Amino acid sequence: MAEDGSVDYSPELSPSAPAEKDGGRPVPARDHLLQWMEVSVAETEKRIGQGGVRMQDTYVVYLVETKVIDEEMPGFSHPPTSLWRRYSEFELLRNYLEIMYSAIVVPPLPEKRVSHAWQKLTTDRFDEDFINRRRIGLENFLLRTSSHTTLSKDKVFHGFLKQEESWKESVYATDFQNKADSKLKTMSASYRLKKPDRRFEEMRNYSNELQTHITNILKIRAKLADRVYGIHKIHANYGRVFKEWGSIEKYIAEGLNTSGHFMEVYSSSIDATLEDEEQFADQLKEYYAFGDSLRSVCRKQELLQLDLEKSEDSLTYKSQQRELMAQGRSGGLMSKFFGGDTPEQRDVKIKNLDEQIVETEEHVVSAEKELESFVDVSLKDMERFQRQKVKDVKDIFLNYSILQIERCKKSMALWQNTKDSFDKM
To answer: Among 44, 106, 260, 326, which is most buried by a count of CB atoms within 10 Å?
Structure first.
């Protein structure tokens, strides 16, 4: 918080800032954490709480590991760290980052449980495959945060990576929850600003459309996966019939049995492919969640804009009241019935209005600076997000294409082997 009451949205410097020295030797500048440290979520483990062996007392923890890989970072030459974190601690970290860095598009967390009806996955949050996919998502959250030039410098985030004891207490000690504007929770989405910022309106609309398109893509993928799965699995019937037929033949038995084997392999080959496709779905779902992060930034901008407009309206009203009172025309209906103010009373009221006007003017200036700072930081971070999105989406669809090409090549190879078996009859 600056002296004038405005919020400083610039990044908080960490010990990695180039200004610090070690033994007279400057510490090399590092834009983000991943330039000198490895971060991973290596393992998962189910544990039982103190409440007993009931299902609701079971929870999952994730092993967060870090390792400094740059020997030129003397301030962080600590040994590798390994500590267990619950999903709720990841949530606490993200809530803290979203509140303290409201102008930044904070990376989302993977879902705690399957919430999309069109995704053909178990709803058991303790399923091994689901836990592993969530582990990958949590690691991705840490990697995105560690690669962000602002978020990666936050001391609370550093504590999450290496402070096992009393980390939660250190988060709550920042009083971040009270710094969240309570108006955000109650602000009506239907209100209209007098002078809305077109850039943020466009970003809000974009986030809604982005989620719509991603949802449609995932629905289509789910339908295709069901169809392809059914086609592959029904080929197991070929395998069964060929083998049964081969048991009664003398001269073509070998060809039938071999063909039946290849049909069974073809039937089971789809399982691994669809497991890989789920990773593709998870990557798109991350960008679905990014839509919520974008709207969170837009809501904060709207709130700051609304606060500025209310202050300007208040200043205009107070100035008009002061002018009318100075002209002796501020009595209104009450003065007609009970008489107007005496000159002394009017002077007192004018003095009070002057003080209120000065205070409101200062608030307007503070609100303008805060809004300007917020807009500057948020627009730059949205540009960063767009560059990141273009690269990631390109990689996602390229990898999906490669996956389908490989599936088709494997299928063609199996059918070629089946044809060769028929040729040998």
So the answer is: 106
**3-class secondary structure, 215:** helix
> At CA 153, angle to CA 143 and CA 184, rounded to 5?
85
401 to 280, 345, 397: CA distances (angstroms): 11, 80, 6
Q: Count CA atoms closer than 13 A to 233's CA, side-chain side.
A: 8
* Cα–Cα nearest to 97, from 139, 160, 39, 42: 160
Contact of 414 with 266, CB cutoff 8 Å? yes
Strand partners, 38: 67
What is the rounded CA–CA span in Å between residue 100 and residue 153? Answer: 13
Q: Which domain holds residue 315?
A: 221-330+339-423
Bridge partner residues of 225 (DSSP): none
Query: What does the alpha-carbon distance between residue 17 and residue 28 come to, in Å, rounded to a whole number?
Result: 8
Write the CATH number for 350: 1.20.1270
- Measured in degrees and rounded to the nearest 5, phi and psi for residue 378 equal -65, -40
Q: How far apart are CA 72 and CA 284, in angstroms?
A: 37
pTM of the model: 0.81
Do 304 and 398 fall within a single domain? Answer: yes
Q: Would you place residue 3 in the very low, low, confident or very high pLDDT band (cuts 50, 70, 90)? A: very low
* Residue 324 falls inside a structural domain: yes
Mark out the alpha helices in 33-127 (DSSP H runs).
87-100
What is the distance between the alpha carbons of residues 123 and 312, in angstroms, rounded to a whole number?
A: 51
From the list 311, 295, 296, 294, the residue with the least C-alpha distance to 369 is 311
CA 384, distance to chain mean position in Å, is 14
Q: How far apart are CA 298 and CA 304, in angstroms?
A: 10
For residue 108, the one-letter residue type is P
> Given phi > 0 = left and psi -120 to 50 = alpha, else beta, which region is 95?
alpha
Cα separations in angstroms, 400 against 66, 222, 270, 274: 30, 14, 15, 11
Q: How many domains does the chain divide into?
A: 2
Closest to 45 (Cα-Cα) out of 1, 105, 86: 86
Nearest C-alpha neighbor of 119 from the set 203, 222, 27: 222
Tens of pLDDT, residue by residue over 35-86, are 888 999 999 998 887 655 555 578 899 999 999 887 666 555 567 889 999 9
Residue written as tokens 């601690």?
Answer: 89
Show the tokens assigned to 186: 């109650």
User: How many Å apart are CA 221 and CA 227, to the nearest integer?
Assistant: 10
DSSP H helical segments within 118-197, as ranges? Answer: 128-146, 155-162, 167-172, 176-179, 183-186
Q: The tokens of 50 are what?
A: 């103190």
